[in-house]
Amino acid sequence: MSRYPSALPPDSPDYRGPILLNPGGPGGPGVDLVRSAGQLISQIVGPQFDILGFDPRGVARSTPRASYFGSAAERAVWGGQNGVLGSLNVLNTSSDGLARAWARAKIGGQLADERQADVLPYINTAQTAADMLSIVKAHGKEKLLYWGFS
């Protein structure tokens, strides 16, 4: 987790609590977003909020990391750091771009199911929402303040 702190102490009557950031993707690391844009976002929303970023389950610094590749070489052969999603730029490059992207996504899903069936059931929207609420409650708040990007 990464935090850009409020200019106000948490016991101040004007302190409003944390705003959780999610860069979207799926698969974007929230820690990096706060590190690169926390100060700017704080200027936009005001000094009464902590700006928090976290890496959702399976993403970046969280563990276990979701990756169905056995090695860096296997990932590189498949198509680089972004895997199936990185191949979506083929959609507009040929008449069969959509079919190729669909096939890669289908194969990627099958690989993930075969190689990470024990992890993937815990990497989903419901788990992420529960994690976000836990973070907010750990800051003494009951309501989630959230700013998502996509």
TrEMBL record:
Gene3D superfamilies: alpha/beta hydrolase
Domain AB hydrolase-1: residue ranges: 18-150
Coiled-coil spans in chain: none
Top-level taxonomic group: Eukaryota
Pfam families in the record: Abhydrolase_1
Chain segments carrying region Disordered: 1-27
Identification of the protein by name: AB hydrolase-1 domain-containing protein
